[in-house]
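Folding Task

Wanted — backbone structure
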Amino acid sequence: MKKLLLPMIYVAEWVLFFYVLLCVFVFNMINFSNIIYTDMSWEEPITLTSSFIKSSLIIVGMGLVCSFYIRYLTGNKAYKRFKEVIWGILFGLNSLSCVIFLSVVYGFDLSNDDGILLLIVTLVSISLTMQIIMKYNYEMNSKLSG
């Protein structure tokens, strides 16, 4: 049973990673295209979705799934560290790009739904990055002391 279940878990991990990577890439490309193509007041920016509530629930739900996944990583120590580094880079770069998009496009005026959604993505991404950093530091400190 273990020979069948373990490869399925590894495949599911990478499917989750590439799904999150694709979502982050599309989200950042939409924000980037809004910076490039919306430079006049009469031009309409590309909206992310039609429903703000649905989008925010999807983002928070994906954040919770990723948070539980990061907390309970499987595999040997080297494979866990590799996954921590990859997820940390993904969420760290997403946090950085979201902060840049927030500062360039919205500044302190988050009056529309896309600005608030970008803020939610930024906060979720920063919290996941911090979780990965804290987990990595805890593992490294427990390795040194033990």
